[in-house]
Amino acid sequence: PEAERDLKEFLAKFPKSSLAIKALYDLGVVQMDLGETQAAQSSFSTLIAKTPHDEFTTAGKVKLAEILTSNGEYGRAEKLLTEAASASNGYSTMAQVDLGKLFLQQGDTLNAESSLSQAALSQTDSVNDGDKAEAKLILSGIYFEKGRVQDAISLANSVAKSRDDLIGAKAQLSVANYYCASGDSSDAVLAYLRVKYVFSSFADIVAQSQLDLADCLIKFGNANDAKTLLLEIIKGRSPDSYTKAAKEKLKKLESR
Fold this sequence. Notes:
Oligomer: single chain
């Protein structure tokens, strides 16, 4: 691939260039995108060894931790993310979020909550605009599982009301699901409808929200409206996983 070749040529010709660190990071990213995991791991490891305190070194640690996590090397990934999270640059918040996810993956809710809270409250500008919002959204799920329903709704709502992107759409769906699970049918329905009308450009999230709304309607004894909604999903989309799920739910309803 051309990008990989060009970056390797640049690094071979100008190893001491001020741009070499970024080029090495970019090389690792390109290799990850190409599925060359071992090569990417080598590039990021070289980057970290060369310049331990550079901003792109922090980014490299986050990327290398991603590879290690996918390989099940959680201890090494945790060490890298902890180091990256303590940096004071645009990648530290990203590291805190990934560290929180890693803790959750291992069932360590306490440390996950701590790391995600730090990310959500971080005063450092992140290179990724969605990092803090994602931290809040994941944190809201932890709160809900702990029975802190209002805190969960409030946190997810703050994300949904402040963003019009995919994270905002997911947050709005979470708000709706929290309301439904807590027994608040009227606010749940309104929240599901907000997914449909405010975040209409995210078709898969809208479809999932309609499936969840159907479940919520069934839960509260409104099977007829649930059937109507499921038929709308089936007729309104090309056959996919969402229409398949809608057909299965409809079949169960009709067999009652």
